[in-house]
Amino acid sequence: MLRLAPIFLLAGALLRGGNPGSPVEYVGGTLSLPANATGRLDATGDARLALRLKQATLEIPYDRVNLLEYGQKVSREYVAAVLISPMFLLAKKRKHFLTVGFTDEQGRQQAIVLRVEKDHVRSVLASLEARTGRKVTYQDEEARKAGRG
Questions:
Q1: Residue ranges with strand state E in the chain
Q2: What pLDDT band is residue 9 in, cutting at 50, 70 and 90?
Q3: Phi (first) and psi of residue 97, to 5 degrees
Q4: pLDDT of 120
Q5: Contact at 8 Å (CB) between 71 and 140?
Q6: Domain segments of the chain: what residues?
Q7: CATH number of 20-148
Q8: d(CA 90, CA 101)
Q9: What is the DSSP code (8-state) at residue 30?
């Protein structure tokens, strides 16, 4: 069984390698994409940012990106917390949001708002800053700490 462990690890790495990018959820924006659609954000391409949702794929040339904003929304799960334990009233659930502003092919301003998983925030922000040449705007100091580490 121990000899099979490296094979399973390699197979898992290969499966993940076939699906590049960070897991995201499309929250909203100016495009007619379904809200709460899940997919992957790939900022590893040389020329384009790719948002691959189950329902659609959006590719944005890096040179058309004109806004990168990151922030956190803090929400409390009151109903579930009260039912489970009063201690959960003190727990916070942080959501990490990235707004990408860009101009489309017709020169119109567009925006997408994505929820990025906590473990992927820093790499996504660093990749976007490097590829677009733009600095991320942070909504507040707490967001800056989370985004920069």
A1: 22-29, 37-42, 48-53, 57-61, 65-75, 93-103, 109-116, 137-138
A2: very low
A3: -115, 135
A4: 94
A5: yes
A6: 20-148
A7: 2.30.29.30
A8: 35
A9: S
Distance of alpha carbon 4 from alpha carbon 11, whole angstroms: 11
pTM (predicted TM-score): 0.75
Q: In whole angstroms, how far apart are CA 92 and each of 5, 75, 89? A: 37, 6, 8
Q: What is the pLDDT of residue 59?
A: 97
Using one digit for the tens of pLDDT, what is the confidence trace for 55-92?
899 999 999 999 999 998 744 443 444 445 555 455 56
What residue type is 25 in one-letter code? Answer: E
Helix H, strand E, coil C: the string for 42-74 is: ECCCCCEEEEEECCCEEEEEHHHEEEEEEEEEE
Q: Are 117 and 33 in contact (CB under 8 A)?
A: no
